[in-house]
DNA sequence: CACCACTACCTCAGCGGTGAGCTACCCCGG
DNA sequence: CCGGGGTAGCTCACCGCTGAGGTAGTGGTG
């Protein structure tokens, strides 16, 4: 019977507050813990490519968008789920390193067009396989069926929270 | 066919980099997204009780430990998974508000003993049911069977990462 | 019993994010 | 064609955490 840290916590609550049903923690607490493991593993991977998670996040969004690899800060803000101030900061760092460029939009005087440079695309394409290998490696403890089942349950969970994607 | 944000991202990668197997993102990306939803929901709950997540985390650890509700900063550091500096800061805030007290250990001159005050215990016991209700509410979109299955898969995942609890 | 590797806790500079607020610009209605 | 609500992006003060480093105390060893 190998338990995890959450089993310990649940046992403590069962002893101290037997009147409360702490079962939800079994799901939610574990998600928080796993996210931390994911974060640490990814950070180590990104560091090998002179990147950090926020930078990778932006570069990947631009790369995913396809040629000509352009998005506005607002679009980046929506996919990254951070505030506009955070995106400004990220773009400052990436522009400084020559991985992206900022230009004003021709059709909308307020908008900025962020473009992935060749160097930026090269940096992302170099890091991406390693990143995927890291994620793949983390999942090797689960069977393919378990992985699929887990992905499915997590999607159901997200959808049930009303987090539908922002229209194609 | 309701998809989530991750389905959109996976479709983009499939178009731009059909040579790569991005399936692992289906699990890991969703965990990150869910953690963010959890964080936001919990923050709103804690705010209703004049608390924030780091404070609740410490108070809950002390409460869980059982009477006399005492732990060292090192023990708190291990359960909270943050650095010692972060714990020092958290304890400063909680001590300021009279929710915990700090005293020196009698048996070990280096150690500090953190004790939950009556006010601290009252604050936690007031927030805890609301906190559980929030978590319960987030999960209502999944059936009881799905919740159990999800908790089980997440535990397997954590255990497979070698994150066994730090010995009773 | 003096030494020393180890542990507990605190300090502090730096980092990335938030949230409020600003300016510039868009565009609809009167 | 002008006014005004809405949007895009940036600025800035603040916040919590990290990671490196410092001090004090512990306990085994020769």
From TrEMBL, chains A, B:
Any GO MF annotation of the entry: DNA binding
Is this entry keyworded Zinc?
Answer: no
Q: Is the keyword Transcription assigned to this protein?
A: yes
- Residue ranges of the HTH marR-type domain? 1-159
The record's annotation in Gene3D superfamilies points to: Winged helix-like DNA-binding domain superfamily/Winged helix DNA-binding domain
InterPro entries for the chain: HTH_MarR-typ (IPR000835), WH-like_DNA-bd_sf (IPR036388), WH_DNA-bd_sf (IPR036390)
Sorted alphabetically, which keywords does the UniProt record give?
DNA-binding, Transcription, Transcription regulation
> One Pfam family from the UniProt entry?
MarR_2
Q: Which PANTHER family match?
A: TRANSCRIPTIONAL REGULATOR, MARR, TRANSCRIPTIONAL REPRESSOR OF EMRAB OPERON
Q: What name has this protein been given in UniProt?
A: DNA-binding transcriptional regulator, MarR family
């Amino acid at each position: 019977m190998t338990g995890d840290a959450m089993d310990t916590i649940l046992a403590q609550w069962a002893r101290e507050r037997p009147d409360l049903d702490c079962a939800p923690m079994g799901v939610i607490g574990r998600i928080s813990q796993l996210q931390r493991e994911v974060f640490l593993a990814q950070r180590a991977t990104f560091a090998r490519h002179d990147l950090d998670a926020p930078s990778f996040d932006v570069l990947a969004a631009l790369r995913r968008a396809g040629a000509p690899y352009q998005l506005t800060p607002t679009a980046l803000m929506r996919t990254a789920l951070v505030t506009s101030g955070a995106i400004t900061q990220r773009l400052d760092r990436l522009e400084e390193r020559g991985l992206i460029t900022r230009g004003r939009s021709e059709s909308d005087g307020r908008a900025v067009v962020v473009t992935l440079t060749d160097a930026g695309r090269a940096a992302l394409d170099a890091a991406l396989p390693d990143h995927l290998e890291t994620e793949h490696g983390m999942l090797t403890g689960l069977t393919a069926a378990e992985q699929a089942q887990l992905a499915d349950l997590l999607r159901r969970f997200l959808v049930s929270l009303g987090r539908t994607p922002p229209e194609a």
